[in-house]
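Sequence and fold
=================
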Amino acid sequence: MQPARQQCSSGDDAADSKGLVAHAVGCPSDREEAGRADVCQGCPGRELCLSQSREDTDQKFIDVRMRAVRRKIVVLSGKGGVGKSSIASCLSMALASLSAKVGLVDLDICGPSIPKLMSVGGDVVVNGPYGWVPLSSPHGGVKEVALATMRKEVDFCRKMNLKVMGVVENMSGYQCPCCQALVQCCEEGRSVFTDHPESPAATAIMKIATNIHNNVTHLQPT
C-alpha cells in the first residue's frame, strides 16, 4: 500500500488557487522512506505516513496460500453486468471436465453470484486454521469506447505481468431464454455441459477452456 500524500511542513510548500497545498521538493510520501526521511521531521502527516508504510503482516500469509495455487486465471471486464460470473463459472466447469483441479473465487463481495451459479449457495463456509475451506461444487469445478476499455484491461494485465490468453466476446447476440439452455442452467445452478453438452454455448465455452488448458499446461507456476 502506498502511503497517502500529506501536507509537508517544508518552506517549499505553496498553495494553489484552490487552496490545495503542493508538496515540498523531495517529499518521500510515495516511497519506502515515507515518514523516516530527514525532510519528514516536523511534518504533520509524518505519523500517518509511518503507519501506512509499515509491513503488512497478513501479506506473507496470503503469499504462502497463493503460491499453493499453481495457475491463476482472472476473468475481468471494464464494466459490470456483462457476464463475468457466467463465463467464469462455465469455464471452471469446462476445465474440471478436462481433469483440471479448479477453484473459483468471486471477488464481488457486495453481490456475489458464483455461489448460486455453482449450486453451493446454501452451504456453510468453514473457517479452518489456514483460512476458509473452499466449498465443493456438484459441477466438479468450480465500437471505439468498448475497444478503448478493452485496451485498458489488456494494459493492466501487461503491467501486472499477466499472460493474456484471449478475449471473450460475450453477449454479442441475444438468444431467446425460452429455447436456450444456458440461461436456465445459470439460473438454477446446473452445468450446461451436463444438461446440454451439444448446445452452441457449451461448445463455444469448451473451446475456450481447452485453449486455456493448453496454454497453462506449458506455463511455469506463478
In short: The chain has a mean pLDDT of 75. The longest helix spans residues 200-217.
